[in-house]
Design brief:
The complex is a heterodimer of chains A (106) and B (308). Chain A has 106 residues and is mainly alpha-helical. Helices cover 92% and strands 0% of the residues of chain A. Classes of the chains: A mainly alpha (106), B alpha/beta (308).
Chain lengths: 106, 308
Amino acid sequence: MKSYKHAILFIGIVMASIIVYAQLFMPNKKAFEKAKSNQEKVAQQKSLAKDSLSIEQSNLDSLTAVRETKSQRVEEFIADTGLYWLIQEIDKYDRLAQRAKDLQLQ
Amino acid sequence: MSFFKRYGLLLVSGLLLVGILAMVVLSLKWKNNIKHLNAKVSSVSKKQNSYIHQKDSIDNIIVALTDSVGVLDSMIDYYESLDFQLETARSQYGKAIYALEEEILAGDNPTKIMYLTLDDGPYDRTHDFLDILDSCSIDATFFVLGKPKMKAVYERILREGHLLANHTYSHRIRTGLYRSTSSFIEDVEKLDRFICNEFGLPTNNVVRFPGGSYQAFSLRRSIIDSLHSMGYRYIDWTCSTHDSSDSCLTVDSAFFNATLDCDHDIDVLLMHDFSKTSLAALPRIIANFQERNYMFFPLVKESHVMDR
């Protein structure tokens, strides 16, 4: 009778240990929920990163278009021979004005 | 009781085993699900990292592009300001000449001013005039006509520091230029358009009537008023080599014509690009004026000699 009680006690301890171990260390629904919540969080972050990327991409596109327009404008200016003559003419008038000023006594 | 004693322990052990097995099976199932989720998380994280990496790259490109757009903006601002800069530089020259002339006319400055003007060009011979002007470091005013085939000569005039002024596009004195005020004004505007189309420049807003302002006879006042309303001034001359009126002109007489008539504080000398005689006399004429303390300048509409 005494060994029977010991056996029941032993089995009870083993069962309790297994249940505690299982609750603490073995994968279960709670761990799954945690992983799922983590996955949702990461998915949300990914979605934010994707949105942010598409905004940046759109900024890049518009900036590229602006740059293209401005480059064309600069190329037009550079191709315009009048630009060369304008600069020459400005230098010429500056030089002449300086010469006239140098001759002034007052 | 004896049955329980005999099989109870076995039964409890069996139930315990079944429970443990069930827990293990459930755990494996959860483990599998969690593994699957973690794989998803890992894949999503990789994508997220890839997006972040791409965004960083785009950010760098945007920074470089913004810098480049800034440079382009400053270039455009500079190019767009050139017209204004030209107007300012011209105005500064006008003011400086006006102030210098004021001193000279008041007798406070012993310098004299000579505005050397060459009419009716450009011709091929204009190059020879330019060579002499270049060797003497003289700046002159070329009252040009519209001659599309002579583009290289206009370019050389501009490049070597001289100014282009308006002598009408066609110079057709006997074929309708002075028929009406509007025909004259149209010819003036046509030359300005020509210079502007070829070189992107305005002329210096100084006009000389072909043959002189008195060639316009009764239209003279009306044309002058129209020119003034358009922002132009006109100029005749105070002395000339007479290279267009005297077919027997010699180099000596061209020299004397130019130098004897010019004895004012501010003079405007007229000669023509086509004249071989004026070309030959030019070095002596320049030397003579330089000895007499004349300084050579190109004409500007602020000068006191305008509208005379």
